[in-house]
# Entry
Amino acid sequence: MEMALPAVKRRPPPASPAARPGRALVASLLLLGITLFIFPLSLHHPLTDPDEGLHAAIGQEMVERGEYLTPQLLARPFPDKPVFYFWALAGSLRVLGFSEPAVRAPGMVFGLLGAITTGLLAGTILGRRGGWLAGVFYAPDSAGFGEMIGTDAGGIWPGLAAFISIAFSMNLMLACLNMFPLPPLDGSAAITLLMSESTANKYQQMLWRTPMFGMVGMLVAWRMFDVIFYPIFWVVVAVIYPDAAYG
# Structure
């Protein structure tokens, strides 16, 4: 499979400028993003990720022992993760009770705050309308895996444009790959939502004990990747650059 997308030239824009996305679209996208963070908390599903159970046990020990200074697992110090996360986890368990949503809430909140602060930082540095309107980045003449933004500036900017383009495309590629409901990809956890708690636990144990399922899942996903990734890639390009026409 070719990892790089062929560059596609942009067609000349129409004489009349296309309408820019309105505030309703921005609000809808914001609401969708928040929903994607909050919805998993409504699912009282067993902790399937090994890290979830590990962190839950540490937070539970904090609450039960009343020892918040040093995270402990089985009465032994656990220095592998910043203590602030376990403080937040212990606080969530005390407020929401010992439940799956209480365990997942801190990670979801930190993820949401990370997304918000990243957007605020980008807006502060590049301006509200983004770097391409500030004269640094703009819609490229041709779009591809490593050509998501263009620049006429010298110095570090061409390299930075290439880095941002590749990083964006790689993250989109990983997101598409994890959409496959196949082990060991993240999408395989969606299957357990249709199972009872006992069946989901047996399913997870079977996957952990049989690595061959993961190898087969990766092979199938890799063979089917082109069918999923390329259409999504061009839809994303069209959303980012609604005034441009590629292809």
Notes: Residues 211-240 form the longest helix (30 residues). The beta strands are 8-11, 72-73, 76-77, 142-143, 245-246. The CA atoms of residues 222 and 231 lie 16 Å apart. The two ends are 21 Å apart (CA to CA).
